[in-house]
Automatic annotation (TrEMBL):
Species whose genome carries this gene: Pelotomaculum schinkii
InterPro entries: DUF2975
Source lineage: Bacteria, Bacillati, Bacillota, Clostridia, Eubacteriales
Pfam families in the record: DUF2975
Keywords, ordered alphabetically: Membrane, Transmembrane, Transmembrane helix
Superkingdom of origin organism: Bacteria
Keyword Ion transport: no
Bilayer-spanning residue ranges: 12-34, 46-68, 88-104, 110-133
Name of the protein this chain belongs to: DUF2975 domain-containing protein
Entry keyword annotation includes rRNA-binding: no
Length: 150
């Protein structure tokens, strides 16, 4: 039991660190793109588009982390098999698909292999979240059915 509490505590610390450091990174994207990266590395014509893609995908990633934190709280304090978590997983899927679409758009003006990999990873993450949402929905239905019979 103690090992489980330690793992939950470490997971919460990691998610909080990722969330708050993500806010700092998102806020500093314009400074990084326009001030810190040499002009020879990024063409002047795509700096604005690159900044927009990075900012919007960062916001979507922060939303995913926020939603994960909310789901994790239900795991620690209440029953995780609720329709609220099913909706949260569906919203995470939508945010993953938004990130994937943003990076498909980025491929139109600056293609890299890493960008293509990000598209694939977030498309798979979106599909995984949808499947997990359906699994949670089924678990909620079984739980409600079981609660009625007891």
């Amino acid at each position: 039991m103690q090992n489980k509490k330690t793992l939950h505590h470490l997971t919460k610390i990691l998610m909080d660190f990722m969330f708050y450091s993500g806010i700092l990174v998102c806020a500093s994207v314009p400074v990084i793109i326009y001030k810190l990266i040499p002009h020879a590395l990024i063409a002047e014509g795509i700096r604005l588009q690159l900044t927009a893609v990075l900012m919007l995908s960062g916001i979507a990633a922060l939303y995913i982390l926020w939603t994960l934190r909310c789901i994790f709280q239900t795991l620690l304090h209440t029953d995780p098999f609720t329709m609220k978590n099913v909706d949260a997983l569906r919203k995470m899927a939508a945010a993953s698909f938004v990130i994937s679409a943003l990076y498909i758009t980025k491929c139109l003006f600056w293609f890299t292999l890493a960008t293509a990999i990000i598209v694939i990873i977030f498309a798979i993450a979106g599909l995984f979240s949808l499947v997990l949402a359906d699994v949670f929905k089924q678990a909620v239905q079984y739980k409600e059915e079981n609660d009625l019979t007891v």
